[in-house]
Design goal:
The complex is a heterodimer. Helices cover 54% and strands 16% of the residues of chain A. By secondary structure, chain A is of the alpha+beta class. The chains are: A alpha+beta, B alpha/beta.
Chain lengths: 540, 319
């Protein structure tokens, strides 16, 4: 149904108007037909009955003139087309048209001799209506001459033809006029209703549709401005208040957004400034450290140099030489510390460069072990290590050595008397090799593990006599990460700790890939080319 | 908007045809008289439209007059005196045409023993109680120097005169054709006839005023067909006479005899009689009116001119 309502409703009204008018017309015609027929029949009956009696009377005394008069007057009746008196031979004795007198009745259209015969026989009237329902024929028996003695009565037939057509036409005309008037009235009413609907509904609807469309398109100021108390006006007013509310919300949102943006800008500026300040501070700090480290190192070298010199001076007492050796050790330690601080500052200020190349792990491990052998021996720590033949890493060799040294020295330092340090290598998946340095020290509580790699966060060392630096592990992490690897620690309090670094490998032996157990050896001094210790201990 | 207009159009198309109410046919009555025959001839020949005019035949002038008078008919063939009588009663009528002028067709007859009008004194005269009858009687008596009281008037419809005469119940009769001929055949002789008073006895075609106003065109048509039948009768005299005499129930010879006593004015004569500035009809009609009024046959004076529309005949003949 795509028709607009304001068109559809009046259309339906008009259709029903036409339908009811048509029905009215048909009904009226039906009733009119019946009425006309019935009244015609009764009318004719009465008229002809009267004529019958007149004829009977007049003909009985042979008074043809008065019979003729009676017949002519009866024929004045508007509907009567034909009125005639036929004798026994169906010859016309009298007729409303005088010229017919003497002619055969059957010559006059409509007269049926068989009906006349029946009427004579039965001495009873007979009334017929033709097919179209417009013509009424009546046959009435009339005594032409009363029979005497054996002679029977002579019966004539009074025949009338009555035309109902004029009355029917009249009725049709009336019915048409009536139906048309009603139709006209109803159509006028329908048109009025159509106009009313248009004004009351269609127009406001259009206004609202228009307003809503424009509103949806973004014009928040549009209003329907429908006044009144009817439903459409109420709809319009509801729309308007919705629009107003929406506009209010919209402008609030706008304000809110603006203030938010301002806030964001402010924060961003603040953050930017803070970041800049932090960066500036950091850079300043690094600069400071760098220059300070340099400043510190220079005299340090003097201390180390001269103390080493003095240590070799035979003229000094053993005690003095040992004292000087202590000075040298402390100085070395300090120098290491300075180097590490320098490294850290360089790393943090971004001036740290790595030389990435293929590195033979076994060689690096051998070097490291050699370097820590004396300390290990001194602390009575046994070192065992796995066979790392064939492992080639992609790393900076120098830094790797530095890292491993740092881990090893930590493992030795934070170990118990007669403890063990183990150096291991594993396949870490994804072409990474893990180097593991385990000790049998005190172990580190789980909650402190994360802080290990933070500079200057030294655990448990505050209250111990073990020297150390808090920088080492954080440098380790930075450098390993710069080499594309990662670091980690596992520890069980009371058992010991295991530090590992994972680095990308160039070549990994198949045995390692297959996670076969390593070929563990205990490191002895004789394993290193500089050691003077006797023979190998343990398995090879 | 277009909706509105379509509905208006629909309305009009429905209403307008219905506005023309079907019209009743004009009801016309007439009585047997040769002068009136042309209209029946017209009907016979199919000149008359049955939906437009319904011609009813009545056996006597009396009943025809009655029918017209009581409103059972719209148009009638009447004598001038009948017309004047109605008009004096206040009826508004219009004379459509002069159908014929009696020139011997109306008469006073008597049995052979009564030789002259003056011999009617004290005798029994049958007379139909119609104005014409009264008029003829009075005029004839007047001319003979007698008064109505001098004779014994027997009121009787004309169709009864013959029997009464034959039975000797009457000595004379005021009569007209065809009864005149019948009576003459039965032995009576004419004492007086209308040829002695020419241009006094007119037969007219008359319509009621309201009918004249509303249905003038149809009335015109009737007049035209009347003349058309005239034309036919002139062209096919034999056939026309056969038909007309049959309807009147008289022999063709009788018919001819009867019509000899009539002047039948045609189109031009009618135009002369009823049209123009001074219709020729007016003078004799007025004379008759004053005579009738003097003789107390009219209750009040009649203005004859009011019954004539001088344009009517000309308009009808133009079409």
């Amino acid at each position: 149904m795509n028709l607009r309502l304001s068109l559809l409703i009046p259309l339906l009204l008009i259709l029903s108007a036409l339908a009811s008018s048509a029905m009215l017309f048909l009904q009226q015609m039906h009733f009119a037909n019946r009425n006309i027929e019935q009244s015609a029949i009764s009318d004719i009956n009465v008229t002809l009955m009267h004529l019958q009696t007149v004829l009977n009377t007049q003909l009985a005394v042979g008074n043809l003139e008065d019979a003729k008069l009676g017949m002519s007057v009866s024929a004045l009746h508007p509907g009567v087309r034909t009125l005639l008196l036929a004798d026994e031979q169906n010859r016309i004795k009298l007729a409303n048209r005088y010229i017919w007198e003497g002619d055969m009745a059957s010559q006059v259209s409509g007269f049926l001799e068989n009906v006349a015969y029946e009427v004579r026989q039965a001495r009873a009237n007979s009334i017929h209506i033709n097919q179209t329902g417009t013509l009424l024929s009546g046959y009435y028996p009339v005594i032409l001459k009363i029979g005497s003695g054996k002679r029977r009565d002579l019966i004539g037939v009074l025949y009338v033809e009555y035309d109902m057509a004029p009355e029917l036409n009249h009725a049709r005309h009336n019915a048409t006029l009536q139906a048309a008037s009603i139709a006209a009235l109803l159509i006028a009413v329908s048109v009025a209703i159509a106009l009313l609907l248009h004004k009351l509904i269609s127009q406001p609807v259009n206004v609202l549709v228009h307003a809503a469309t424009r509103f949806a398109a973004g014009d928040l100021d549009v209003r329907s401005n429908l006044q009144g108390e009817n439903e459409m006006a109420m709809l319009g007013q509801a729309f308007d208040s919705m629009a107003r509310e929406r506009k209010r919300v919209e402008s609030e949102l706008l304000q809110h957004r603006e203030s938010l943006e301002n806030l964001v800008d402010l924060r961003t500026a603040e953050l930017k400034q803070a970041k800049e300040e932090a960066e500036f501070a950091n850079a300043a700090k690094s600069e400071f450290l760098s220059s300070m480290s340099h400043e510190l190192r220079t005299p340090m070298n003097a201390i180390l140099g001269y103390s080493q010199l003095l240590g070799m001076d035979e003229s000094l007492t053993q005690q003095n030489r040992e004292n000087i050796r202590e000075i040298f050790n402390a100085g070395t330690h300090l120098l290491n510390l300075i180097n590490e601080v320098l490294d850290l500052s360089r790393i943090e200020s971004g001036h740290f460069e790595l030389k990435i190349e293929e590195v033979d792990l076994q060689a690096v491990v051998d070097d490291c072990l050699r370097l820590v052998a004396r300390i290990a021996e001194k602390n009575q720590i046994a070192i065992s290590y796995c066979n790392m033949q064939g492992i080639t890493l992609r790393a900076d060799a120098t830094r790797l050595k530095q890292i491993l040294l740092n881990l090893l020295s930590n493992a030795i330092k934070y170990n118990r008397e007669g403890g063990n340090v183990r150096v291991d290598a594993q396949y870490g998946g994804n072409n990474f090799i893990r180097i593991l340095v385990s000790d049998t020290g005190l172990g580190i509580p789980a909650e402190n593990l994360a802080d290990l790699f933070i500079p200057f966060s030294r655990l448990s060392a505050r209250n111990s006599s073990i020297e150390g630096t808090g920088i080492g592990l954080s440098i380790t992490r930075r450098i390993v990460e710069m080499m594309g690897g990662s670091v980690g620690v596992e520890s069980v309090v009371g058992n010991g700790s295991m530090f590992w670094i994972a680095l990308p490998a160039v070549h990994i032996p198949d045995a390692m890939r297959n996670h076969e157990p390593c070929n563990e050896r205990i490191y002895t001094a004789s394993d290193s080319p500089r050691s003077g210790a006797a023979g190998m201990r343990g398995n090879s | 908007m277009k909706f509105f207009f379509t509905s208006v159009l629909v309305l009009l198309s429905v209403i307008l045809p219905g506005c023309d109410a079907p019209r009743e046919p004009l009801r016309m009555v007439s009585s047997p008289w040769p002068g009136y025959e042309p209209i029946y001839l017209a009907r016979d020949l199919g000149y008359l439209d049955a939906d437009s005019v319904r011609l009813s035949e009545l056996p006597s002038a009396n009943i025809a007059f009655e029918a017209f008078s009581n409103g059972s008919a719209d148009i009638a063939t009447l004598t001038l005196d009948e017309t004047l009588t109605l008009m004096s009663q206040g009826r508004k009528l219009h004379i459509l045409m002069v159908v014929d002028i009696s020139n011997g067709a109306d008469a006073v007859i008597a049995k052979p023993s009564i030789k002259t009008m003056s011999a009617l004194k004290g005798k029994r005269i049958a007379m139909e109680n119609i104005p014409l009858g009264v008029y003829i009687l009075n005029r004839s008596l007047e001319i003979a120097g007698l008064k109505e009281s001098d004779v014994s008037v027997v009121p009787m419809p004309e169709d009864k005169h013959l029997k009464a005469y034959q039975q000797g119940r009457i000595d004379a009769a005021v009569t007209m054709e065809p009864y005149l001929t019948h009576l003459v055949k039965a032995g009576a002789h004419v004492l007086f006839d209308s040829s002695k008073i020419p241009n006094e006895i007119f037969d007219l075609l008359v319509a009621r005023e309201d009918v004249f106003q509303k249905r003038q065109a149809e009335l015109c048509s009737i007049v035209q067909q009347w003349f058309r039948a005239f034309d036919y009768a002139t062209a096919y005299q034999q056939d026309a006479v056969a038909r007309m005499s049959k309807r009147l129930g008289i022999g063709e010879q009788t018919f001819r005899t009867m019509t000899e006593g009539l002047i039948l004015p045609g189109r031009q004569e009618n135009l002369h009689l009823l049209g123009g500035k001074e219709p020729a009809f007016l003078q004799p009609a007025r004379k008759l009116a004053s005579t009738m009024y003097k003789e107390h046959m009219l209750g009040s004076p009649v203005d004859v001119a009011s019954s004539i529309d001088t344009q009517f005949m000309a308009a009808c003949l133009k079409q």
